[in-house]
Design a protein that fits this description.
The complex is a heterodimer of chains A (534) and B (231).
Chain A lengths: L1 E8 L3 H12 L4 E4 L16 E2 L6 H11 L6 H9 L1 H10 L14 E2 L9 E2 L5 H15 L3 E3 L2 E8 L6 E8 L5 E11 L21 H8 L4 E2 L4 E8 L9 H4 L3 E4 L12 H13 L4 E4 L5 H7 L1 H11 L8 E10 L2 E3 L12 E3 L4 E2 L11 H19 L11 H14 L7 H15 L6 H17 L14 H25 L21 E8 L2 E8 L2
Parallel strand pairs in A: 1-2, 1-9, 2-6, 9-16, 15-17
Antiparallel strand pairs in A: 3-5, 4-5, 7-8, 8-9, 10-15, 10-18, 11-14, 12-13, 13-14, 18-19
Chain B lengths: L1 E7 L7 E7 L6 H11 L19 E4 L2 E4 L10 E3 L6 E3 L2 E2 L1 H10 L27 H5 L12 H12 L5 H6 L13 H5 L6 H14 L5 H5 L11
Parallel strand pairs in B: 1-5
Antiparallel strand pairs in B: 1-2, 3-4, 3-5, 6-7
Helix pairs in contact in B: 4-7
Classes of the chains: A alpha/beta (534), B alpha+beta (231).
């Protein structure tokens, strides 16, 4: 049994920030990750990092609140915005080389929905450079990493609901093991991956931590709020940065007609694109007028990605696009200390959490800010948490060993889960995507619950113990089914349109729904209700 | 149209075999791996996360050269193997952890105070995605497995350029570090991000000399004469 003070699950920007803060405060820290430390979605964030000057803080708060469409908490947004400059300075002191302007000052830019210029960036690799910098610092500070560890379940005391560690499948050995800790920070990322094939996210964004918290008796919230990015490549769903429109790119449909103001917020642009696609038209991004010289200077990553993934020279050809799942606002319901609802000693930070910062829609540049600022807060709060119990004997390890054993020996594998995974992604995208309605959502929910019933008839073909990625894909699919169920129940019951959640049968905002959807499980059965915004 | 993938499973006999798979045309090599895994052979093991060339997890060897599977379109007859100079764990999955220890050995992190005005000098070096392609292309690894290698040295160069303290790292890269490089430039050719570790290593040599270190190879070049006696 491995024992530590703080166990952090996930090694993206939030996890590493939390680890560094906890370590700085003298705690013994272990970071567990299902891959390697820098293989996180953080590295894909291009746009930048919002940090407000003292004159701008209130405007930053107001912009974020406005974007949240009534679901943001002013207390939490205050906390984040007021610490934004300090978070940026912290990164700079770690040697994250943000871009400078011609005067040698830190360069910043506007992002959609922002009143002032406050988005600091490092070329179009902001997230990558932040993540690599955090990793280098983590190695310098002797933070321990457990790599290739797939989170199975949290270890929770059934009476006190105190979390004292987690169980993992060690992918390299195939063994199930436990790590015990005085407190746990979940930083496992979002769940856009449930839209398999229709997301800009990397593989494995299946909301593992959210599913684990709910299984442990914790609470999740607002899962119906998913941000769709307007410009992903049609075949591969690879992201084409918003910068392409910022620099003057525009949309045309297959009739060659422009149909939307490209600089509207992401949700509005995505809806306009979805409408065109639903009328069996194709949608293209046109940047040809910018010329190849300018494009190779302004959008070098995009030029390369179009060539590789669509075999298109964007300087001379139209780019076929679609809107796909990009960022998930919902997640683990946390209090103002970032402690997961329904549990004790379990904190959550970053995209996996719902700290009531983004609400119904996220402001560009606030995601990198959130993972750093809230990661630091989570690290501090986890250190200050006083655990009540000694590490008591717990049955979780035995249960999870039995589960993995059953997957190897009892799950019949008569149904190919890869086919189901692809099907789920497709029906979620088309019925619980940019534009939703009652009939479509009910249909997907029925199909999903059928998959849950069929789960033991699925399984693995690869029976090896070590590095069994077939097994990992399968357990991830199980988590995706749990998370997508909450997403669908939320979307089905929210009979209104708010931010990124758009119901064509209820196209208006309705004040009776200015509340959070709340999800938990009782005896394995999903329960849901709406709770007022505090 | 087919590709050959070198499979490895330490529990099987023989441990390593070559297997042929059809090419799914129009898709990247990583997407081909996924198609193979989900429709032909679920036991094929590989890594891959971001699909867009920024996470570094899907690096493999194609026809002897290190590539990112997500950024490469396979061609008929391609021979795919795991990365060189890494311990193979299963099929195309290798142990990158051990190689990342070079970041600790070389103290590749911020020491001292940050010099913000030097940030533009390290734009390229800080684009590293830790794919280890440079490391896998470095011929020095064949003769010295303790060589710190290209990506860690480029990182050291990044940090000493933007920090007030270069001594911590410069001291750490004298043994199995800057002087062991043959300046062949294979790392520079291999880097998918356009980083030039060879140039960074040459710059680190200059910094080392400025810090009072000498090229140990030069000390050995005494042409059989003993200069210590004087003329």
């Amino acid at each position: 049994m491995v024992v530590t003070d703080i166990l952090i699950i996930g090694s993206g920007g939030a996890g590493l920030s939390a680890a560094l803060r906890a370590k700085e405060l003298g705690a013994d820290v272990i970071v567990a990750t299902k891959t390697l430390p820098t293989n996180a979605n953080t590295c894909m964030a291009q746009g930048g990092f919002n940090a407000s000057s003292s004159e701008d803080i209130q405007t930053h708060i107001d912009d974020t609140l406005k974007s949240s469409r009534g679901l943001g908490s002013s207390t939490m947004i205050d906390l984040m915005c007021k610490s934004s400059k300090a978070s940026l300075d912290w990164l700079i002191n770690l040697g994250v080389p943000f871009s400078l302007d011609s005067n040698g000052d830190l360069a910043n830019r506007f992002m959609g929905g922002s009143t002032n210029k406050r988005t600091y960036y490092a070329e179009d690799y902001t997230g990558l450079k932040i993540l690599q910098g955090l990793y280098d610092e983590s190695l310098k500070r002797d933070i321990s990493f457990l790599t290739n560890r797939y989170l199975l379940n949290l270890i929770v005391d059934e009476e006190t609901k105190e979390v004292s560690g987690a169980t993992f499948l060690d992918i390299s050995s195939g063994n199930v093991e436990e790590v015990r800790a005085k407190s746990v920070i979940v930083a496992t990322g979002g769940y856009s991956g449930v839209y398999g094939g229709f997301t800009t996210n990397g593989f494995g964004s299946t909301g593992d931590g959210i599913a684990a918290v709910v299984r442990a008796g914790g609470v999740a919230s607002d899962l119906e709020f998913v941000q769709f990015h307007p410009t992903a490549l049609k075949k591969s769903s690879i992201l084409i940065s918003e910068a392409a429109r910022g620099e003057g790119g525009y949309f045309v449909n297959s009739d060659g007609v422009r149909f939307v103001d490209e600089l509207l917020p992401r949700d509005e642009v995505s809806r306009a694109i979805a409408k065109e696609l639903s009328q069996n038209k194709e949608v293209f991004l046109d940047v040809r007028h910018l010329g190849s010289e300018k494009l190779s200077h302004l959008l070098p990553q995009e030029l390369k990605l179009c060539k590789i993934h669509e075999n298109i020279d964007m300087a001379n050809e139209l780019i076929p696009i679609k809107s796909v799942a990009h960022y998930t606002m919902g997640g683990i319901e946390v209090d103002q200390k970032l402690q997961a609802g329904g549990l004790k000693g379990c904190f959550a930070a970053g995209e996996c959490s719902n700290a009531h910062i983004h609400g119904a829609n996220r402001l560009g540049g606030n995601s990198l800010l959130e993972i750093i600022s809230m990661g630091l807060v989570a690290g501090e709060n986890a250190v200050n948490y006083e655990s009540k119990s000694e590490f008591k004997e717990n049955s979780q390890l035995a249960k999870d060993k039995a589960f993995i054993n059953a997957v190897y020996h009892n799950f019949t594998n008569q149904i190919n889960f890869y086919e189901k995974r692809e099907f789920l992604g497709k029906i979620l995208y088309h019925n619980a995507g940019v534009i939703r309605n009652d009939t479509g959502l009910k249909g997907v929910l029925a199909a999903l619950r059928q998959m849950q019933r069929e789960f033991t008839f699925m399984g693995i073909s690869d029976k090896s113990k070590e590095f069994n990625t077939n097994l990992i894909d399968f357990i991830e699919f199980g988590n995706a089914l749990e998370v997508a169920e909450m997403l669908l129940v939320g979307a089905l019951h929210r009979n209104e349109s708010r931010g990124a959640h758009h119901r064509e049968d209820f196209p208006e905002l309705n004040d009776t729904f200015q509340s959070h959807s709340i999800f938990w499980k009782e005896d394995g059965v999903l329960c849901a209700e709406f709770k007022d915004v505090k | 149209m087919k590709i050959t993938i070198k499979r490895f499973d330490k529990r099987k006999e023989p441990q390593s075999i070559d297997m042929n798979y059809p090419i799914f045309e129009g898709l990247t090599l990583l997407e081909n791996f996924i198609k193979i895994k989900t429709t032909i052979d679920p036991t094929l093991s590989f890594n891959g996360v971001c699909r867009s060339g920024v996470c570094g997890s899907c690096s493999i060897t194609v026809n002897g050269k290190a590539k990112l599977a997500c950024s490469y379109k396979p061609k008929d007859g391609d021979h795919i193997e795991p990365l060189s100079y890494h311990k193979v764990q299963r099929d195309l999955i290798v142990d990158k952890n051990k190689v990342h220890n070079t970041l600790e050995t070389s103290h590749a992190a911020m020491h001292g105070d940050v010099i913000v005005e030097n940030f533009p000098k390290v734009t390229i070096q800080s684009d590293c995605i830790l794919c280890n392609s440079c490391f896998a292309s470095c011929p020095v690894m064949a003769v010295n497995e303790n060589f710190i290698g290209p990506f860690a040295l480029s990182r050291v160069y990044k940090y000493i350029t933007i920090s007030s303290d270069s001594k911590t790292s410069i001291d750490a890269i004298q043994q199995n570090g800057v002087w062991d490089c043959t300046l062949c430039g294979e790392c520079t050719l291999a880097c998918p991000q356009g980083i030039d570790p060879k140039m960074d290593i040459m710059n680190l040599r200059s910094k080392s000399v400025q810090s009072g270190y000498m090229d140990p190879n030069m000390q050995n070049m005494n042409f059989g004469l003993d200069f210590t006696q004087g003329f």
